Structure formats: structure tokens, C-alpha cells
Amino acid sequence: MMAPAPAPEKLLDHRGNPRASFEMALTYEQARLGMAFHEAGHAVLSMAYGMHVLTSEVIAWSPEVDRWAVTGNTAFRTHDTNPWHFAAQGAAGELAHVQYLMVSGLWTPERALACTADHDRELAIDVLADFGYRLSLGHVPEGGKSWGMVRGMARRKVAHLWREIHTVAHAMNERDILTGDEIAALTGLVNTPMPTGGAA
Fold first, then answer.
1. DSSP letter at 49?
2. Distance CA 83, CA 127 (A)
3. Which residues, including other chains, have CB under 8 Å from residue 71's CB and lie 6 or more apart?
4. Strand pairing partners for 145?
5. Which pLDDT does position 112 carry in this prediction?
6. pTM above 0.90, yes or no
């Protein structure tokens, strides 16, 4: 059963702009599980990097008759997090989504392109800039990293933690939402205690 449409702010990026949406030419079940892999990528890498994960969820709804849409959300808290680890967890959603397509025999260039999550990249760029770190899309800035370098870090971590991501994605697909403690119990990872301060 599909949930009601999410609150409008859940469909906006951190700057208040609508997130891009893409048609993926998949069944509802395939698209929903793909989004669960996307959110599981964020949640598992966040936890592996020592962030406190609050929840991770997949949200599906019907915007009009005979149509459906899916999105997701992972909420976490950080404290003294390595900035490049923060950026890597941002890249992990899209990478886990594409990996799901590949291992499921669903990959096409068009579907891979539809996994694009520019809002995750832009959030990482802006958060790191707030703390004086230089992350750029098309080049390696002096003293910083390119998004391609961050994606490389995330790709290795996603491969290393693929069993955990797979486990979390399937559980999320069944239950809609998982708490950080439930993710820890499923994976054996440690959900670092909630910091007293920090950023979401």
C-alpha cells in the first residue's frame, strides 16, 4: 500500500529548490527497491563513518491515478566527522542505486542516468564549503578534492559494505522505514551515540 504524498518540503533540496525527478522505465517494485538501495547506501556509509543514523526510509505515493512516485530520506547527526567521509556518504546513494541496477540485470545507460542525485552532491559541496573545505565538480581545487575523487572513495566503501547495504535495502523495502538502531542490529555496525551538537 502506498503512503500519502510526502510533505512538499521533503521534495526540496537543502536550498529550497525542487529536486530533479526522472522517469526510469521500471516496474513499481523495481523502482521502490532501487530507492531503498539509494537510502541504504547513505545510511550504511554514514554509520560506518561514525555518524549517528536516526532513520532511513523509502517513500512511495501516487501523485495521480495510475501513476506512482518514489523518494527517500536518511536522517543522521554528525559530530567531528571527517569532511570527506561526509561527502562520500552523500555520493553513496547514487552509487548504491546504480549497483542495484547492475546486479539485478536492470542496468541501461538511461536508467543509470536517472539515478543521478545532484541534490546530494550540492549538499556535500555546500556543507564542506561552510567548514572551509574545497569540493568541486569538474576539477581538483587547490587543497581540496573533486567530486570524482569523492565518488571513488564512496565506490570502494560501497563495494566493501555491499552485503550490509543489500540487507538494509531489502528490510527497508519491506518496512518502509528503519531506525538507526535497527540498521545496526541488521548489519553489526555500531550506531555511534547521538552527539550533543552537530549538523543533520
1. T
2. 9
3. 6, 10, 11, 19, 35, 58, 59
4. 135
5. 95
6. yes
Distance CA 48, CA 165 (A): 11
Neighbours of 24 (CB within 10 A): 21
Cα–Cα–Cα angle for 92, 60, 200, nearest 5°? 45
Contacts of 65 by beta carbon, 8 Å cutoff, 6+ apart: none
Give residue-wise pLDDT tens across range 19-51: 878 888 899 999 999 999 999 999 999 999 999
Task: Give rounded-to-5 percent helix, strand, coil for the chain.
Answer: 50, 15, 35
- Give the pairing type, strands 52-61 and 69-77: antiparallel
- Which of 116, 89, 115 has the alpha carbon at shortest distance from 100? 115
161's grid cell:
559494505
